[in-house]
Queue: 3 jobs
Job 1
Amino acid sequence: MQRTVRCEWPENVPCTLGTWRACGQWRKSYGSVDAASANGAARRGEAAAGGGAARSEPQCAANSARASSILHLPRPQRRMLGALSAVLSAGSEALERLAFLLAALFLAVEFLPAAFKSLVHRAKPFPRVLQEVPRRRTVKDIPGPWPSLPVLGTSWITTKFGPYSMSQLHRAYQDMFERYGDIVREEAVWKHPVVSLRNRADIEKVLRSQSRAPLRPPTEIVSTYRRSRPDRYASVGIVNEQGEKWQHLRRVLTPGITSGRVVGRFLPELDAVTDEFLALLRGRRDPRGTVAAFDELAMRMGLESACTLVLGKRMGFLEATVDGVAKQLADAVNGHFRASRDTFFGLPFWKILPTRAYSLFVECEEHYYDVISGLVEAALREEESTCEVEPVRSVFMSILHAPDLDLRDKKAAVIDFIAAGITTLGSSLTFLLYNLAKNPSVQSRLHEEISVLVPHGAPVTSENLRNAKYLRAVISESFRVLPAAICLARILENELELSGYSLPAGCVVLCHTWLAGLEEKNFTKAKEFHPERWIPEEREKLCFTNHSPELLIPFGSGTRICPGKRFTEMVLEVFLAKVARDFHLTFKGELNLKFEFLLNPSGPVDFVFQERQ
């Protein structure tokens, strides 16, 4: 440890070169003089004594005692004094004078008098604003996984060399939030920052800052592929476009599917689709009532419902035996989502090499483009005769007859609507039944409500659904506890300060509403399934003081909200009402999850459907 040393020479003994030369003890104190230097000093001491210039013996003794009391200096200072002693031993008067001046300067710096030091310590300090100027924390200061590699950033963390698995990315983010806090920085290709948020205030600030045309990170593989196929696509599609182009597509393509009146007219047909699905479940039960691989059947339900609404045509996906085309279309959509996940969150080698993920994406995209494009062209040839389901004719025809729009954009819109509906609906149906099966008290209360509103054998109507308060609460709670979309992605349009860090415009942020919704500070008993929290009078009665409904955005937020929101909610309401009325559900074990761009059930999902008497 380095220590500051103070030299206290008495006032009646001047510190001169002769005094230092006559006192050999100082060399011993610093241990920096070699034998030759010591001998030279001794010879000079003898000469000084013969000439009468030496100090008296008491003076030398006093100086020797003072020098010996000096503590050892750090190594650089010792070396400097050693060099000075070598100069003194050389015998040159000019060198001795130079050495003395250097030594005096050194001592003035190293050994400040005690009085002067006390004055320095008692001096008034500079104002605090000049002493401590807090540095503005930027996006580079946000903690996150390390190291960030050149070009690749932190995208390596989900490879076989990293700590996380691509199919368990939802668990990866949960772990990173526990390690680094409510704000985490990753770095994508070329080290572009991607910031994940779990803090409710930060998420609200991002969503409030949106313009009328919010920016979201595009699925790059979709944009790249569609730009390479101008023969099929006039744009990258309504999901990936930005700015004015996106506003135009949204305005002309979505009125039919977002209209409450149009979707309401779809209800009778949806009721018939649900009855057909329940008949399929009954036919798949074993003697103990178990329906194996329910998640696959739920995907077929989602595909049939989406095609019926968007295409205006029943496809036959719920029949006991499904033809090859229908199954291939469902498999293509699933493969499309897996490839999108691997290229979005993984290493970017697909941009320079035809990787397995890119090849899978191209194969799936081209397959279901061919299938759906054939349906669209047939509809154009046959016009209204193609729309077999009369109430939903306006949805499909509103897309086909959209003004000032290329036919290629119309086909792309149909493809995007169906692909989004299949996986979202299928997973949401599975998660909804799982939450119901794991909470028998919720299931009993829901059965009582539906049995009154929709007696056995009666169809579901819009009036029934308006009065099913607890039914809607169960669906909302299921979206909070286990949604298909676990986060919301945005590109900041302006500079924002989030959790004390300044994020620039253009920064990509991921708002993890699912993980935020499982925080106790946002929802009382957040890890438990309580639909009552969504009924105001019951929430107060049960003292659910923490309640953050702004985190429940399974379909997105603002003008960029999913256009299929009304349709999806209605499918879930009709399906849940009929299942809760007719069956008692049980599920053994826990539901495993996997991330495939959306959150999906992993492995076979087996429910037990027991008929209610």
Job 2
Amino acid sequence: MILLTVIFVVLVVLFYNRRTVYLTWKYPKVRTMTYFPIVGHLGMIKYINPSVKSFMEFWSLLTSDSGRLLQVLNIKMMMVYKVEDVEVLLTHENTQNKHYVYDFLKLAIGDSIMRAKGQVWKDKTKAMRPTMHTKTVSTYTEDMCKCVEILADKWTNIDKTFDAMQDVAKCLLDMLFTTSFGVNLNCQANQTKFDEYSESFAELFMDRSMSAWKHPDFVYNLTFSSKKLKNVIHHISETTDQIFTERKEIYSLEQELAKDEICLDDKPIRNMKFIDYMLDLHTFNDQEIKDEVNTFTFAGFDTCKAGVSFTLIALALHQDMQEKVYQEILDVIGADRTLSYEDLSKLVYLDKFLKETMRLFPPVTIIARIADDEFPLGAHIVPKGTQVMCNILATHRSSLYWENPLKFDPERFSAEGLAKQRKFSYIPFLAGTRACFGTKVAMLSLKSAIVTLIRKYKFYTPYKSIEDVKLEVKVTLSAEKGILLRLEKR
């Protein structure tokens, strides 16, 4: 009787999902694993609890069968990297919601813009757009450069090869907290562990994402990793709560002064920050603002850290180009003047150099979406519920779109090079409806860091080539052996 009941339930489910079942059966399957009728690709089982290396091996394996379906029972997934498929994934109305693994972030970021879906996401994006306005972002430039000056001074007495990652991380935290949040926590001077907790958070998120058996909440909540994650989030929240409390007090004071039309030195009192705009909206409660602060911290910190780190390696690997970047900075700004926002458009070669760095080392290498409904991909129809991943690193390094793809060549981003570039072949900040919200701040952080540091030092590295920099993914891209640099004062 129990068996008959189970069979009946299965048949009912299959009947009501017959369209999805039919499309799944018809869709071309991954060829790099053996496919068995009904049960699917059982070879995937060995990746249930992978290491970072096997995780990258798995995505590489899927990418080699770009656009083909991997199926295990009712689980359906695929990887794409060809530009025509990437364009569909990033722009089609049925692929705009993120993969369910982003729900693993809920304890830290709540229902923030990173996780929001549908109309809620549209409303939040529209409301928050002024926080990224050029007039707001441009005011961050001077404070960013001051934070990098502290880092440059810290490196004065280093006379050997070292891993620069931790120092860069603390500098970028200072830049983020001081500019976007208007609170200076002096991370470079104090013994803060925020960057370590952030690193732990990323590792725990990746561990759960890679381990299929940890995906269900009721299972994960029983693990040691879950307890460790809650502890890490507690420590991170202590810092972000402090930021929110301090800035809200400053905001309230500035509001009172503004009412009285009090000015200091004939300058407006208010220097609007990210949090200020959120408070001004009056549509977000305190917890929602804290969630957005956490989101901006995690997303902004990790991507900028990767961007600055790999740019320093790229400069060190290409001494002639490093000198060209340096000379352009001297011509535009000089040896001592602080970078201004207006200078950025004049640093043409630096801009090309940074873009080529992010082509070869995109901070975010893989994004994941879920098919809310079926959608066309090439000559086939992707079934509803399919998990669709985009391998940005593979697209950026594909010989289909880039001649000699591992050669570092900033001229790919000259006017002539851009004219040859395929649409969606370069997407370090994504594209389409859900492109990166903080691109302006990220690029300003990157340029402020490089301009300030390269005027103080020449950079060298024991890495011999781009291929010599072995990569791993910890939410964002990182170098397996670290950001190895040697400095020479100018």
Job 3
Amino acid sequence: MVIAFLNHKERNITEIYCIGHVMGTIIVTILFLWTHILVVSCVSFVGKLEDVSAIEGQQAVLSCFISEDVVNAVSWWKGLSKLADLNENIKTEKARMSMSSLTVPFGEMRMYSLMILDVTLTDEGDYHCRLQENENIRSGTAHLTVLQIPSSDYPQCIVFGESFIVGSTITLSCVSELIKPPVELNWMRDDGTIITSNVRSNVWGKLVYTNLTFNAKKADNKHTFTCKQSSHVRQQPDVAFCVVDNLNIYYKPVIKIQHTDVIYTGSDAILFCQSFANPPVKQYEWISQPMLDVNEYENDGQVFRLLQPTRKHNGTKITCTGKNVVGETSHTVVLYISEEKRNSNVHHGNTGGNSESDYEDENNMLLSDDLEDKTEISLYVVIIIIILVVIIVVVVVIIPVYYQCFCKTRTATDSSGREIYQPTVYYDTRDRVSNSGLYDRSLPRLPSTGHYGHWRHSFASQVPEDLDVQGYTYIGDRNNQNTL
């Protein structure tokens, strides 16, 4: 009975302990949840997330702020994909994305940042933060824009054709890649002027084309066009360019016959057919009107030689025609044949049908020319003589006089004409004892001989060289007597 009672009592105590433990656990859990709900209900995100731009291949940082200093309670999301949080440390391939938190010095806030390394085009989009305990508490969105730097392979210039005929259509195309933000392509002339007319841009696949279309002109031959590429992302926007140079424009020849204005009878006349063309002229054709006999001329491509012309050839028209693949052009000249000049000593007895009167005017003209030539020669001779006389006067007269008056140093002479030496420096006076045997008792005795000595005083000075009269004076003092 006692044993049964004791067993019954222990069982009741055990049941009471179990019930108490369960109730305590429930109460603690309720208190924890209530406290956490109160804390969570007070937490919210602060401010609006800022949009971010990043260059492809570099890094981007996005940040959000929460009102309470709640550690390890926030995660970053892109759309429906969770990117990173501090607890689970979720990271993408090659650990490009990571998350960090920092308490803001001012106010009770905490900043949560998402860092993306080596940004790619696929990273562009909208990002937001979430409170992990309550997914309904989330921040606004921040948009990440990925910017691209133009590749060094672009731009590229394309010419649709190797050569163009004047008047045909030329299309120059400048090609670059289609990126964000789009690059700007501009065609420019040699002088740096931007071409705005006849320029059109279009997109084909992942490339963008800026085409310049114009009609070929002769002046465009060997011309240069430059396409410059600029971008807002590039630090130096205008360093990328491509060039189309040495445009090959075909045009028909420009012909001009070169020859002397006057052709004299009996002297062969040479006519040269000068041409400017692209491509060069390959065929030249000479035509005369009236037509010349085959033995009266020689034709060798660009050169036409009229053999021994006579007065009958005066007024003959010579035409040169040059041809290339574009077309042909001609130029015509009229020959003027003049009688050949004759010397004044030519005998007129046998003139072959020409009378003396035919040459009278010509001889008078020759005589007049000779007189004019002689007059010109005489004038030149007079001028040359005057110049020579002036030079001789300057060299022989003026220069020696100038040297004699201003440059040469004058010397002093005595009455006999002998030059007196003039010292160039002053020297100090000197006193000494004379050994002439004359004594001055007013002076002390000499220590060596015990006799009275005669003291002598001498001096000299420089004489100015610009004096009209020069000379020297010697003054001596001997026994209180002055001598000159």
